[in-house]
Amino acid sequence: MHKHIFVATDGSESAERAVALGAELAATFEIPLTIGHVLRFGRLPKELARMAEAEHIIDTVQKASNITLGLPAGPRDSDLFSSSHMSSDIVQGITLVGEEIISRAANRAKELGAKTIATMMVSDDPADGILEMAEEAGADMIVMGHRGLGRVRYLLAGSVAQKVNNHAECTVVTVR
Ligand SMILES: Nc1ncnc2c1ncn2[C@@H]1O[C@H](COP(=O)(O)OP(=O)(O)OP(=O)(O)O)[C@@H](O)[C@H]1O
Ligand SMILES: [Mg+2]
Questions:
Q1: Domain that holds residue 45
Q2: 159 C-beta closer than 6 A to ligand 1
Q3: 18 lines ligand 1 (CB under 6 A)
Q4: Relative to the alpha carbon of 123, which ligand is closest?
Q5: pLDDT greater than 90 at residue 102
Q6: What are the pLDDT digits (tens) for 65-85?
Q7: 4 lines ligand 1 (CB under 6 A)
Q8: Residue 42: which CATH number?
Q9: pLDDT of residue 101
Q10: Which of 21, 33, 36, 41 has its C-alpha lying 20 to 30 A from 144's C-alpha?
């Protein structure tokens, strides 16, 4: 049987299903669970902004800090979160959103009965970060979503899911 499960979450619905599966396995077989998130300060931060807005994470983060992360009134493609406008507030904002994603996932895992839960966060290429955290946690199974926050909708797995699957030394479960 596996000894340690690592779940990767970007806060997407698909990742939520991965958190649920990882937590259920951890609860049923009484094995420790580590939940990890990779912060992305550079490319594709609009995905994070979109998700954060939808899930009211922005409100939570703003209330918990003195940072104003107001999303731009214009099109959602506006690059408030992009590196060209990367003020220290934005950097801190992205970090807080990441912490919120992780803490929600950990609460969900707890609700589902997982007993030993650790959390990790790094800033890296997402797939590299996931592989690195899973190894550091001593995980022998990675559970992740088949898709994430990316908007492309087709049958292929997302690029992060594909890369982790191709490079991991341990078992990888991708949740549909
Ligand atoms: N930044 C991240 N931190 C932690 N886990 C992540 C991160 N990004 C993706 N994942 C994990 O990988 C799974 C698949 O997401 P992936 O990014 O491959 O799909 P996508 O966003 O739909 O496609 P793409 O990123 O290629 O546009 C997610 O459900 C999540 O489990
Ligand atoms: Mg993605």
A1: 5-175
A2: yes
A3: yes
A4: 1
A5: yes
A6: 766 655 444 444 444 555 555
A7: no
A8: 3.40.50.620
A9: 92
A10: 41
What pLDDT is recorded for position 107?
97
Backbone angles phi, psi at 124, to 5 degrees: -170, 180
Report the atom number in ligand 1 closest to the C-alpha of 143.
Answer: 31
- Distance (angstroms) between ligand 2 centre and the Cα of 145 equals 10
Q: What angle do CA 33, 58, 71 make, to 5 degrees?
A: 135
The rounded Å distance from CA 168 to ligand 1 centre is: 15
Q: What's the domain count of the chain?
A: 1
Structure tokens at 95: 């970090």
Return the ligand 1 atom nearest residue 144 CA: 31
- Using one digit for the tens of pLDDT, what is the confidence trace for 116-144? 999 999 999 999 999 999 999 999 999 99
Question: Could you write out the DSSP letters of every residue in the chain?
Answer: --S-EEEE--S-HHHHHHHHHHHHHHHHHT--EEEEEEE-SSS-HHHHHHHHHHTTHHHHHHHHSS------SS-TT--TTSGGG--HHHHHHHHHHHHHHHHHHHHHHHHTT--SEEEEEEES-HHHHHHHHHHHHT-SEEEEESS-S----SSSPPHHHHHHHHH-SSEEEEE-
